[in-house]
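Q: My labmate handed me this sequence with no annotations at all. I'd like to see what the chain might look like in three dimensions before we decide whether it's worth expressing. Could you predict it?
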Amino acid sequence: MKYFKNTLLFLLPLVITSNLYADNGIEKKILIKSTKSWNGATLPNYSKGQPEITIARIKIQPGEKLPWHYHPFANAGVLISGELTVITKDGQKNVLKAGEAIIAVVDTLHYGFNSGNTIVDIIMVYAGIENKPVTILENKQ
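A: Here is what I predict for the chain of 141 residues:
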C-alpha cells in the first residue's frame, strides 16, 4: 500500500500538468527534449556565472551557407520554414525540415546551409553566460 501511495503522489503532478490546458482550447506540444545534441553527444554541465538567455531568429537565403563556427553553450531551435543542413567538421550531417526542432552541438565546429529552395527561417535559443559570446567563428578560436 505504501508503494501505491508513493507512486500515486509521484504520478499526480504529471496527470495534472498533462491536463493543464486540455479544457480551455490551448494545446501544448513538446517539440524536443533531450540530454544529448542531435549527433548523440551528451550536453555539457551548465557553466558558472550569471545565466543569460539569447533568442535569435536567423534567415538564410537558398544556397547560402553560414561560416564554420561553434557554440560554447547549450542551444536549441525550431525551423520555421525551409530546409537546413548542418555538417560538423568530422562529416556528421543533420537535415532539418520545416517544423522540426534541433538541439545543436556544443563545442563542435559545424556550419549550416540552406539546402532547399525557400528561405530558411529558424529561431534559436542559447543558454549562455552574461558577457560571453554564444557563437564563435572558426578563425576566432
